[in-house]
Amino acid sequence: MASPRSFSSPSPLATFGYKVTYLLHETLLGLRRGGWLNWAAVSTLMVLLFLVGISLHLAWGLEASVGSLGNQLQISAYLRPSAQAETLVPTVKALDHVVDVQVITKEQAWKTLLIDMGMRDQASVEQQFGQNPLVDTLRVQVDALPHLDSVAATLKRLDPIEEVAYGSQVVKHLQSLQETLRLGCLTITSVLTLATVAVITTTIRLIVMARRREIEVMQLVGATAAWIYLPFVLQGFLFGVIGALAAWGLVLGSQGVLQDLFGTIVALPFLQFTGEATTNRNWQLPLILLGMGTFLGTMGSLIAVHRSSR
Q1: What is the residue range of 25's domain?
Q2: Same domain, yes or no, for 106 and 44?
Q3: Tell me: the pLDDT tens digits for 280-309?
Q4: Please, what sign has the CA dihedral across residues 102, 108, 113, 115?
Q5: Minimal CA–CA distance to 255: which of 237, 274, 236, 240?
Q6: How many structural domains compose the chain?
Q7: DSSP letter string over 75-126?
Q8: Does any domain span residue 126?
Q9: Closest among 73, 54, 74 to 273, alpha carbons compared
Q10: Is position 302 within any domain?
Q11: Residue 4 lies in a domain
């Protein structure tokens, strides 16, 4: 009697390869059946990520520019006529956030003023205007722009200092601009995120409905829900990847436009868009866009699958 033929079970590697091939085939089949709905989902996601990328790029550029401006803006502390600036230097240097203190004596300031006015004969000027009317001045440099207000307030409380002057309006304008940009970015992102998830959810649900007979057959032969609906989740994941790559390409292609836009928004001639300062973060932006795109795409497809499987 002939022994029964024995069949060897496939290896785990072969089984894994079959599963991957099946998932890729079903995912591509769903994309092909989606038609123009795929473009609607990807384009909506691309627009959202593009606006997020622009907002982050502008915010980083403004932050770097404001940070560099903190090293340029100085606080001028004017002392009383009888006070000597040198005696106050150690006290000012000991203050928090103060990185440098420069003494401008009234003699130095007087000579600089005469030169700026084109007057070379100091003796004749003193005969006309009397003695030197200026006072000693301290030029105080802080470590960052947000600390200008606090350092200036501290300097005003020091006894020999009579008056403090700095670009307070510039500081308030830049801080207000940062808050406005942050709020605008958050609002636009929130609204477009809801719209994007809705479009992706609708797209995946329509694709599921178009393949409902195939799904019913798979359910009859014992396929699990995870095995049936995983290709649809992968479709949403691919929507996110494609949308993120397209948005990143648009951001790269609009560098010049972003610089002009920054100059229009800020409208301060001495504050320039520091594109070099954002170079260190250039590798972060595509990762942020990719992570956000894949999350939204996967989330939208999971919502669609959950609703369709009920």
Answers
A1: 15-68+172-309
A2: no
A3: 566 788 898 999 999 998 998 888 888 877
A4: negative
A5: 274
A6: 2
A7: EEEEEPTT--GGGGHHHHHTSTTEEEEEEE-HHHHHHHHHHHTT---HHHHH
A8: yes
A9: 54
A10: yes
A11: no
